[in-house]
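Quick one: sequence plus adenosine-5'-triphosphate SMILES, need structure tokens.
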Amino acid sequence: MPTNKTFTMIKPDAVADGHSGAIIKMIEEAGFRIVALKKTQLTAERAGQFYAVHAERPFYESLCTYMSSGPIIPIILEKENAVADFRTLIGATNPDNADEGTIRKLFAKSMQANAIHGSDSDENAQIEGSFFFGNVEQF
Ligand SMILES: Nc1ncnc2c1ncn2[C@@H]1O[C@H](COP(=O)(O)OP(=O)(O)OP(=O)(O)O)[C@@H](O)[C@H]1O
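Reply:
Sure thing.
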């Protein structure tokens, strides 16, 4: 069975509120294998690099402040159809629009503090995973 990878981050609000364990449990129960995982904290500058695609958006500065406000847990995951299945598992960006039972419906506080990130393409999963992990950590 072919598998592929996606990248996720448990965001500062969810880590600070003690939801990391429950979120990782949901991810594993949905059939994802953890390839690489760590706890770290972004500077505002590195958060800005990660979200550079949003640099012109009005929420960019606030997003960088929020994403550097506390520890995060970046994770590389593997599963068949990983990117699309993970986006389904986390739910819509705005928790008000997220389906029942999704990670964001359960744990997100707002459109910005929405508990978790999920890559939106195989290409971005590769780029984002490499932002946090070296080859030696990806097995
Ligand atoms: N209108 C907004 N106001 C505040 N924050 C926002 C807004 N839109 C997006 N964000 C924040 O920026 C992140 C990236 O936005 P994007 O549109 O790429 O959403 P996404 O693909 O669902 O989220 P992610 O990339 O984190 O998985 C969102 O997850 C959220 O934290």
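The mean pLDDT is 96. Helices lie at 12-16, 20-29, 44-50, 60-67, 82-90, 103-107, 122-132.
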